[in-house]
Amino acid sequence: MDFNDTPQEAEFRARCRAWLEANAEPLDPNETAPNPLGEREDAGAVAAAKAWQAKKFDEGWAVLTWPKEYGGQEMGRMEAVIWNQEEAKFRTAPNIYTIGHGMLGPTIMAHGSDEQKKRYLRDMARGQEIWCQLFSEPAAGSDLAGLQTRAVRDGDDWVLNGQKIWSTGAHYSDWGMIVTRSDSNAVKHAGLTYFIVDMKSPGIEIRPIRQINGGSGFNEVFFTDVRVPGSNQLGKEGDGWRVAITTLMNERVAIGAGSGGGRFRDLLRLARTARRGGRPAIEDSAVRQKIADFYVTSKGLQFTGYRTLSAISRGATPGPEGSVGKAVGAPMAQQLASFALEIQGPMGGLLEDSVVPQEALWQDSYLGSPGLRIAGGTDEILKNVIAERVLGLPPEIRVDKDRPFRDVPTGPPGK
Amino acid sequence: MNLEFSEDQKFVQQTARDYLQAHAGLEVCRAVLESDRPYDPDLWKGVAEMGWLGAAVPEEYGGAGLGYLELVLIAQEVGRALAPIPFSSSVYLATEALLLFGSDEQRREHLPGLCSGERIGTFALFEGVGDPEPAELAVELRGGRLHGEKLPVLDGDVAGLAVVLAKDGAGTSLVLADLEGEGVERSGLRSFDPSRSQARIAFDGAPAQLLGSAGQGAAQAERLLDRAAVMMGFEQVGGAERALELTKEFTMGRYAFGRPVASFQVLKHRMADTYARNTIALSNGYYAAWALSNDNDELPLAACSVRVAASDAFRLASEEMVQMYGGVGFTWEYDCHLFYRRARLLGLALGSADAWREKLIRRLEAREAA
């Protein structure tokens, strides 16, 4: 057992660093990492992201785990993580490719035709075409297979009507991957079909969602008689659920890899400067006890992630055990932020960057953290995954399983 | 990075599991708990013959010459079995103290007996209520003899050899004391977990031999406790994992409202939470075990983390076990209280988790200042 890099990993890390040092500016190690729930990227940021991705691609530092024929480097997951760790230490353009490269690309590789792979994957890898995911709907989140966006055949084409929601980056994307209901006489999971859709098609309307933290990283996407050529169907008709599962399995890998670390330097600094009971808050034992708990949990999650990574790099398939990272880490991010606001006292109730400690980092984090507990699987869904797929406890009772989807009751989307 | 235990290490763990399944079912723990016997001597003899007591001790001192990565996996199995033996006191503390600080002569004198199980060792540190600082100790070393009282001392009634932390002039020192010799009076005490015995030890001029450097006792004790915390952390995780497995099994078989109670989402989520805490403790344990086996700079913080995480995890798993069993979980007849007691005992034995949280923050501050 060894937590250090192997000689090969250390050599690779040095090569990453050397290239990054030659091509980007290092971040100050005390600089706070940006909020993970992205802001709405403007055209300038998107152009910068495309330029950075193209540079990486042309010099062999993009989509490291992908096959060579699609522009990848056929490296292991460990190398990809080492690259990500090193890249995060530099000031680079925002990463708008996580969904495409981490989830949608692998789905096309698994289910696409040769023509589709040839047409899309290289351009996706080089980042000149940006992709988004069109899965959730107003009435289908945790129960994704209950989605209602309709796909109806019309000659060689399909015609799509309905609404998608929570689509990150739809407003700057060229392509989307969408799951639709093509047969409502079939049972819920059997009547779905998966498509690649041109986001510039007539009939698509994209509206930003304003989040509680004021950001707008997500969109609602409305489809009105949108025509999709039959050649854009991914996988077989009615087999959309299986294709979607491939995407979602890769989401777990993409999200799980980043967790851990924590912001303890920031928290300690805050606790040293804030006052409580006539002395620095860090001298208050209640504060000390809580910081210790956050530290222990955060380290435990980080090492759990490393264990998963180590197993994957030795050929294991990522399993449902990975759910622990998000099931614990997301609520903890919220608790940590709330605790930091408590340390600030009444000042915690301000959002004014110029007077609030650490440029309102904890205020921003608290406002953004509820989203972490929902996106990519709610706390409750993740606990179900752990309970059922890790511990082998009985599955939830399903009342909609064996009847045609059209007979399954649905509520209004709600306001 | 490679976070796998080796095949050989996993084999050691499997062997330990098989042995304890055959020789240390929960009825063995219960038999000690319900009797006046302080531990199970047959099981003690058995694990000695398996070589576990000297797993990390070099062969020249009578050990098996394995390493700490093997020892922590054995500890995890000892925890799973709730083995009613003075394993932690003798192996993680007394044996470890001799390996860390003993002269060659001291090692030759004491380690073979500890490895063979003929002699049991312990660490006499605490002196009454609370988590004491070394400066507050009352037990004193004067002219090579110990005076004062240690309470509680885990396995102190059955140990023949104690490592004792005592005041020594201006500072503190670790010393070795023969508990069967002159100037020692000891009495067994009712233990919260009667499957692990505890004692009061009164020294009245007992001869003592310096272990390590004079005046360095507090620092040495701290180092010793760090290392013991890692090994005990695995023991605690083992207990927590077993508690969850039994809870799962029980709730799958128990029906209410026409369904297994394990199918209710509230219980599923609580078991998922318990699993998550166990995982976090074990992952902290991996890091700490690596730091222990390399004796590297990460150990002091990693030891605090695993101590806190494992103490909390075992406590939660055992509390949830009682609650999810329902009424029968509160009966003497069912085994839940074996876990409930052991979890608390181990969680307090090396100092409370809260005291280790405090230690963690001190160390974190020191690191940040550096």
Tag the structure with descriptive keywords.
heterodimer; A: 415 residues; alpha+beta; Butyryl-Coa Dehydrogenase, subunit A, domain 1; Butyryl-CoA Dehydrogenase, subunit A, domain 2; Butyryl-CoA Dehydrogenase, subunit A, domain 3; 3 domains; four-stranded mixed beta sheet; four-stranded antiparallel beta sheet; globular; B: 370 residues; seven-stranded mixed beta sheet; two-stranded antiparallel ribbon; 11 helices
Question: How would you portray this structure in words?
Answer:
The complex is a heterodimer of chains A (415) and B (370). By secondary structure, chain A is an alpha+beta fold. Chain A has 3 domains: 7-96, Butyryl-Coa Dehydrogenase, subunit A, domain 1; 131-248, Butyryl-CoA Dehydrogenase, subunit A, domain 2 (Beta Barrel); 259-377, Butyryl-CoA Dehydrogenase, subunit A, domain 3. Chain A has 11 helices and 12 strands. In chain A, α8 (285-313) runs antiparallel to α9 (323-344), α9 (323-344) packs antiparallel against α10 and α9 packs antiparallel against α11. Chain A has helices at 7-23, 43-58, 77-87, 98-111, 114-126, 240-256, 264-273, 285-313, 323-344, 361-372, 379-390, and strands spanning 25-26, 90-91, 131-134, 150-154, 157-165, 175-181, 192-198, 204-208, 219-229, 233-234, 275-276, 279-280. In chain B, the strands form 2 sheets. In chain B, strands 1, 2, 3, 4, 5, 6 and 7 form a 7-stranded mixed beta sheet that branches. In chain B, strands 8-9 form a two-stranded antiparallel sheet. In chain B, β6 and β7 (198-211) form a beta hairpin. Chain B has 3 domains: 7-116, Acyl-CoA dehydrogenase/oxidase, N-terminal domain (Butyryl-Coa Dehydrogenase, subunit A, domain 1); 121-215, Butyryl-CoA Dehydrogenase, subunit A, domain 2 (Beta Barrel); 218-369, Butyryl-CoA Dehydrogenase, subunit A, domain 3, CATH 1.20.140. Chain B is built from 11 helices and 9 strands. The model of chain B has no long low-confidence stretch (mean pLDDT 97). At the A-B interface, α7, α8, α9 and α11 of A face α7, β9, α8, α9 and α11 of B.
